[in-house]
Amino acid sequence: MCGMAKKILLSGIQPSGRPHIGNYFGAMKQFVDMQDAHDCFFMIADYHALNTIQDAKVLRQNIVDQAIDYLAVGLDPKKSVIFKQSDVSEHTELAWIFDTITTMPYLARAHAYKAAEANLNKEISVGLFNYPMLMVADILLYDTDVVPVGADQKQHVEITRDTAQKFNNLYGETFKLPEVKILPNVAVVPGVDGRKMSKSYDNTIPLFAEDVEIEKAVMSIVTDSSGGIPKNVYAIHTLFRSEAELAVLYKQHEGKYKVLKEALIEDIKAFTRPLREKRKVIEGDKGNVLKMLKEGGQRAKEKASAKMDEVREKVGVKLY
Ligand code: ADP
Ligand code: TRP
């Protein structure tokens, strides 16, 4: 790597509630693992979260909590830019420009939109429909090479590449086409009910849970009664132990779901305890967290505003 410029990495998570182990193994852990080898931008997608959180007090608290979560899992503001989306107004500005070159039928094919339409019992906001365009702007503003995310975000990165190409064709070479990075073995961590673990399904094992909460969540994991291996328990267990170790354990306790769940509880506790303790220390110095976030916003803004200037020039609105 010596002398070579590092690749640029950008990713983000919405401040929509407490992170769970699916968020950690699907996304956050990769952030930490990739931090040294890349120039990183880790974003708190607070404007995205406005689609679902319309209570200022809750949103404010969630943003600070997410900044603390990022630091607790090991993101380091000395190595990476940690910032919130709303501190860099270029994101929403660029999203508008992308709106003008994107069609409604194209966006109507997005999985997230289709799922929202199928599951929400109300009309969908323009913001939710348009959600991918803001994400495209998040990514393209920083000349991003790689976007580490969980499998459910794959299509959004494809939309990003399409949009970059569309803009480049119209206005000349401006945006880099980013690659998505998904860890295959943790692409979809199941929740306690066997569906994808998600804050919106109330089926999570929170990453910073207290021990009793972990016990309760694991004991509630749905087990199918066919065969000696409880599928969901096993799938979650693979995040904490090698398959060789699990083969021995699950053979030894074949059919004994309670014992296997207890083993999983111990493994989750051992893994999450240090993270939870680190989080408590960071939480104690909120002033420092806010300062870090503000500085991150300034650093992100510097890069984004240069790119945005180029875009204004390309589309023809820059006169001076
Ligand atoms: P949630 O569905 O809980 O609201 P988010 O949409 O906030 O999660 O996702 C944040 C990040 O975590 C994304 O990169 C997403 O792909 C990843 N992620 C979320 N749930 C899972 C899961 N069950 N397994 C793997 N990755 C996940
Ligand atoms: N849409 C992502 C999610 O729900 C969050 C996000 C917003 C994001 N902007 C991004 C992820 C840019 C990666 C890159 O998880």
Q: Please, could you describe this protein's structure?
A:
The protein is mainly α. It has two domains: 8-187 and 286-315, HUPs (Rossmann fold, 3-Layer(aba) Sandwich), CATH 3.40.50; 199-280, Tyrosyl-Transfer RNA Synthetase. Helix content is 55%, strand content 8%. The protein has 14 helices and five strands. A three-stranded parallel β-sheet has the order 1-2-3. Helix 3 crosses helix 13 (257-283), helix 4 (90-99) packs across helix 8 (131-140) and helix 10 runs antiparallel to helix 13 (257-283). The chain starts with 6 loop residues before the first strand and ends in a 5-residue tail after the last helix. The relative contact order is 0.14. Bound molecules: adenosine-5'-diphosphate and tryptophan. Adenosine-5'-diphosphate is lined by residues 13-14, 16, 22-23, 26-27, 149-150, 152-153, 186, 188-189, 196-200. The site of tryptophan (TRP) has 14 residues, from strand 1 and helix 8.
Task: Note the beta-strand portion.
Answer: 5-15%
Spans of at least 5 consecutive residues whose pLDDT stays below 50 are none
Separation of the first and last Cα atoms:
40 Å
CATH architecture grouping of the largest domain: 3-Layer(aba) Sandwich
Number of helices: 14
Main-sheet strand order equals 1-2-3
Helix content: 40-55%
Topology pattern, helix = H, strand = E: EHEHHEHHHHHEHEHHHHH
Overall structural domain count:
2
- CATH-assigned fold name of the largest domain: Rossmann fold
CATH superfamily of the largest domain: HUPs
Main sheet record: 3 strands, parallel
What small molecules are bound in this structure? Answer: adenosine-5'-diphosphate, tryptophan
Give the overall pLDDT as a whole number. Answer: 94
Overall CATH class of the largest domain: Alpha Beta
Report the count of strand segments. Answer: 5
Molecular shape: globular
- Structural class by SSE content: mainly alpha
